[in-house]
Amino acid sequence: MAQYSIKDVEILSGVKAHTLRIWEQRYDFIKPQRTDTNIRFFDDDQLKTILNIALLNRNGMKISKIAEMDTESLNGEVIKVTTHNVEPNVLLDSLIHAMIDFDEARFEKALSQSIVKLGFESTFTKVIFPMLERTGILWSTGTVRPAQEHFISNLIRRKLSVAIDNQYVNQKNNSKKFVLFLPDGENHELMLLFSEFLLRSRNHEVAYIGHSLPFEDIDFINKAFKPNCLLTFFTVPPKEMGLQAYIEKLAGSYPSLHIFISGAQVVMQKPTLPENVTYINSIDDLTSKL
Question: What is the distance between the alpha carbons of residues 124 and 281, in angstroms, rounded to a whole number?
Answer without folding.
Answer: 16
